[in-house]
Amino acid sequence: MDPSRDNPLIRFTTFWWGIGTFFIFAALLAVIWLFVRPEPASLEDAAAQPRYATKAKIDAAQAANLSPESIEAAAATVAKRLADSKPVAVSVPAQVVPGSDTAKKLAAAPPVDATAVDTAPASADAPIDPAVMASGKASFLVCSACHGQNGEGGPIAPPLAGSEWVKGPVSNLIRIQLRGLKGPLKVAGKDYNFAVGMAALSYQTDEQIAGVLTYVRNSFGNKASAVTAAQVAALRSEVGKPQLPTEELVKP
Ligand code: HEC
Which atom of ligand 1 is nearest to the CA of 142? Predict the structure, then answer.
C-alpha cells in the first residue's frame, strides 16, 4: 500500500491537478473550435445569419403566443363576426386641388339654395346640449387663434362677440367655415377688410362644425339657436368652392 494515498495533502493536490488538466484541455478544444469553425460560404450567407437567428426567435415567440390551435379556435368566431357584420359605407371627401378642373367646375357651379337651412325650425330659447357646447369649445381652439379666446377679434380677424353675422342666418356661418370668407365686411358697426380673408376649415366633421358654430352662437354674450349636423351636411357641396365673397352672405 502506497502511504502517500493516505496523505490528505497529496490527495488534495492530486484532485486539483485533475480538475486543472481537464480545464486546460477544455480551453484547448475551445480555441481549436474557434479557429476551425466552418466559414459562411459567402458574404450574403454571413449577413443572413443574424436574420435567420432573429427569425427563429420571432417564430418561437409567435408559436408561444399564437399556437395553431388557438388560431383555429378563434377563426370560427372571427369568421362568424365578419359574416354577420354590416359595414356602413364611408364617404371619403375628395380633395380639391386649387386650379384643377374640379376646382374650376365648383367655382362655376350655381350657388346652393340655403333657404331650407335658414328656415329650419329652431328656437333661440331651446336649451342647448352641454355636450355639444363642450365639443364646440374644443373645436373653437383653431378659431381662437385668429378671433381670440373670447371671440373679441384682433389684428387678423373681426370679433365674433356681438357679431350680427354670428347670431344671424345659420347658412352664412356654415358656408364661411366650409369655404372661408373674403371681402370687406361690417361687423358690429365697424368696417373690416382683411387682405387674405379667412381660410376654409372644412376638415372638421359635420358634428364638429355644428358644435363650434353652436358654441360661438351661445358664447361671449351671443345667444342664438343651435346649429345641427344635418344643417351642415345640407351645405357640404359648398366645400372646394373659392372663398365666399362677403356680398354673397345672407343679410342678417
Ligand atoms: C386664420 C385666421 C382665422 C381662423 C382660424 C378663423 N377665422 Fe373666421 N375670420 C377670419 C377673417 C380674416 C375674417 C374676415 C374675412 C373677411 O371679411 O374677408 C373672418 C370672419 C369670420 C366670420 C364673419 C365675421 C364675424 O366676425 O362675424 C365668422 C362668423 C367667422 N370668421 C367664424 C369663424 C369660425 C367659427 C372659425 C373656427 C371654426 C374661424 N372663423 C376661424 C379669420 C379666421
Answer: 5
Domain that holds residue 226: 129-245
Considering its fold, how many domains does the chain have in total? Answer: 1
Task: List, for residues 124-168, the tens digit of each pLDDT value.
Answer: 678 899 999 999 999 999 999 999 999 999 999 999 999 999 999
Distance from Cα 127 to the centre of ligand 1, integer Å: 26
Helix axes 170-179, 206-217, angle to 10 degrees: 130
Per the CB < 8 A criterion, the answer to whether 139 and 219 are in contact is no
In a domain? residue 112: no
| CATH code of residue 213 | 1.10.760.10
Give the global pTM.
0.67
Between CA 80 and CA 106, with CA 89 as vertex, the angle to 5 degrees is: 165
Q: Would you say residue 26 lies in a domain?
A: no
Give residue 91's pLDDT. Answer: 63
114 domain-assigned = no
Over the stretch 72-84, which tens digit does the pLDDT of each residue have?
Answer: 888 898 999 889 9
Q: Of all protein residues, whose CA lies closest to atom 10 belonging to ligand 1? A: 198
